[in-house]
Amino acid sequence: MLKYLLEKEFKQFFRNRFLPKVVIVIPLMVTLIFPLIANFEIKNINLSIVDSDKSPYSQQLVQKAQASGYYRITNISENYDNALKSIELDQADVILEIPINFEKDLVNEKAAAVMITANAVSGVKGGLGSAYLSSIISDFNTNVRVEWLQSDSRFVVPRFEIRPLYWYNPMLEYYVFMIPALMIMILAIICGFLPALNIVGEKENGTIEQMNVTPVSKFKFIISKLIPHWVVGFVSLTICFVVARLFYNLIPAGSILTIYILASVFVLAFSGFGLVVSNYAKTLQQAMFMMFFFVLTFIFMSGLYTPVENMPQWAQIISHFSPLKYMIQVLRLVYLKGSGFTELLTQFFALSAFAIFFNGWAVISYRKSSQ
Amino acid sequence: MEKETDIENCKKVLLGEFEPVISAKNLTKTFGHFTAVDSISFDVAKGEIFGFLGANGAGKTTAMRMLCGLLKPTSGKGKVAGYDIEKQSEQVKKNIGYMSQKFSLSEDLRVWENIRLYAGIYGVHEREIAPRTDELLRQLGFESEKNSLVKSLPLGWKQKLAFSVSIFHNPKIVFLDEPTGGVDPAARRQFWELIYQAADRGITVFVTTHYMDEAEYCNRVCILVDGRIEAIDLPRNLKEQFNVKSMDEVFQQMARKATRKAD
Questions:
Q1: In chain B, where are the structural domains located?
Q2: What is the CATH number of domain A45-151?
Q3: In chain B, whose CA is at the least distance from the CA of A2?
Q4: What is the pLDDT of residues A18-27, one digit of tens each?
Q5: Contact criterion met (CB < 8 Å) for A3 and B120
Q6: B4-95+171-255, which class in CATH?
Q7: What is the pairing mode between strands B228-233 and B220-225?
Q8: Most distant pair of Cα atoms in chain A: their distance
Q9: Cβ distance of B69 and A368 shorter than 8 Å
Q10: How many angstroms away from the CA of A370 is the closest CA of chain B?
Q11: Could you give the ipTM of this predicted complex?
């Protein structure tokens, strides 16, 4: 019996003008385009310079800022008021003001002041913009000092430098962190969204009633909806792996089999969640809306964009209930750190619990006859 | 069009001489304060074409959905093909065919694919499906449409296909919910020929309609007004009783009693 239902589902899927294309396009979008967009590295900060000193030292400082690669000098003003106007006009994000006598004070007083003003409308840009600038200035400061002292051969200057070593992602490449997590979004959409919407669609056009009056058991009906989407979901995931390998040379440090095993549990859990939604929604509109509400919540609580540890305590508690969180952890750990199955048991059990919970709920709430 | 043997059968049912294939006893369905079906009782004999008549909103579809196991009755009992509609609804489903008011085959499957799907679901043997599909399409004069997507068919053909699919597995009973709604008179006539053919194969036909000319085609009719059975008899007897020439006139007199608004 299941054979006939599966035949039907696969035919309908591939006969759909839209869905088979989405399965190819989504993984390409996610691996090729999203990492370029969803990037938190701040570059191209617009810098406004007010150099009232116009000395060799002040010029050096400006050059150093420019050479860092973070800044684009968009404005050079005669005084601070003009520079402030450029912030108001949104032409500058950060102002660096070097006062008169900067060089003189530096040489004579062994100390000089500069002022950084940041536009905090875009908090991240303003914050990081001024932080980078501070570190550039302190670096400049050290260099100047070292130069002086070394010109006097009586002093041997102890100099230390901090060289961070970033384990698992040595170059701190943002895409290495994002792509594995984004792959999970695809699985969530294809294996969670699509079957749920498919079932509600059958409800809406009345074809489900024709099924309900046949001896097809609810288990077989549901499984016939899930299997095709699981197959398709894993095809998409595999495309992601291939694209990540070809374009970013991104290969999981751990075993790809581990990913597939945990992904199967995740997919089971998430499609169970989709089924629950489909059992309660009477129209596609309701289903879409419910899905969006929960999926957005799951995503923001998952640590995909922002670390869960940064969240307030109550939000961290809620984040335990996002199946996406565990699966994103799995992909990042396997891809970056090379964790094996035994190190991922927490995630495995959490995902299994979700799978049992959602599917149990789905089977109980699905009714072939109405009250 | 009434056959004497059928009439004899019906009389036997009324006299309680043999086991009915459908029987309802005080079947009731309420939605909140609204009583859609109000304690109806009737029996249908094997091989009968049983018409369920009533205005829109009289409770025909609700009653039929309860008999098919799609809706749980609020109270009362029902038996279909010897199985309890509430406790053995899955057994009931194995023995019936159902065609809903709204066309509900998959529009994005081809004609033969829809037949194959439902034949397979009802457990028709894989080997039999293809030859019987060809045979069916030949009988219907449908061979050229075998590979058409169902959504491209005109409504009259869709309904004929839906009916043929619903009896492909030779069920004991077929339930037809307003099968000819929106279909032109010629197609309706053809449709009723199919119903007669099914009845000849021994399939009991339970059909709802509000076309009174179709009521004349039934062996026995039951007229539902506001969820209650107002009359249940042979069309001929009803016409005699009301002293009119057509079922339409019978219905007009009955329907006047309705207080419920049509939906």
A1: 4-95+171-255, 105-170
A2: 3.40.1710.10
A3: B121
A4: 889 988 888 8
A5: yes
A6: alpha beta
A7: antiparallel
A8: 98
A9: yes
A10: 5
A11: 0.85
